[in-house]
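Notes, p. 3: input format for complexes.
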Amino acid sequence: MTVNPKAGDRRKPDHAIERIFTDRWSPRAMSGEPLTDAELLRLFEAARWAPSSYNEQPWRFLYAKRAAAHWEAFFNLLLPANQAWCRNAGALALVVSKRTFSQNGKPNGVHVFDAGSAWQNLALQGSQMGLVVHAMAGFDWDKARPALAVPEDFSVCAMIAIGRPGSESVLPEEMRKMETPSPRKPVREFAFEGKFPAR
Ligand SMILES: Cc1cc2nc3c(=O)[nH]c(=O)nc-3n(C[C@H](O)[C@H](O)[C@H](O)COP(=O)(O)O)c2cc1C
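Output follows (199 residues plus flavin mononucleotide):
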């Protein structure tokens, strides 16, 4: 049994926006089926078209396919709470970002901002393809760099689980009730005309 991972039916925006934004969410239930290379390439293609300062494109995605050569190395980085549901992922990825501009070696103060745009492109594309795409900070950040040979001039940003949607029954019980699209703060709590409001 699979579930439809699109959440737009259960999320009502306060102002009119495209469904692509409310459809994307972060389920944990995945089927354990593998992903094809063609699917993964489509996801990375979406990431490719993200904007970046000076078009530096500082993002890099290191990935492992389920049951393939690098799977264990990626899976072992995850904290136990994330391993509990990521065991059914079709792929795991580490997002890393280049700290300096390639043209002149100067620090790029917005490289993580740009890598965030790339991840979001990938997540939106995956959601539209009916896949689960779920970012994670819950992994061993110290081990990630040596385990995956991330060079010093790159920052480790986040990990991502990607997979086909699956039944909630595959999840540990405490995670089943979390398997629902989350709400958001209203726009007026984070968008201000003029200066930052007094606190
Ligand atoms: C950078 C980042 C790190 C996250 N880390 C985790 C994590 O370690 N484990 C987890 O289950 N979810 C994690 N999440 C998922 C968030 O909890 C989720 O995106 C947030 O609650 C909003 O819900 P939605 O994505 O379903 O809209 C993370 C999301 C982001 C963007």
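The helical segments are 19-23, 37-48, 71-75, 80-86, 111-128, 141-147, 173-176.
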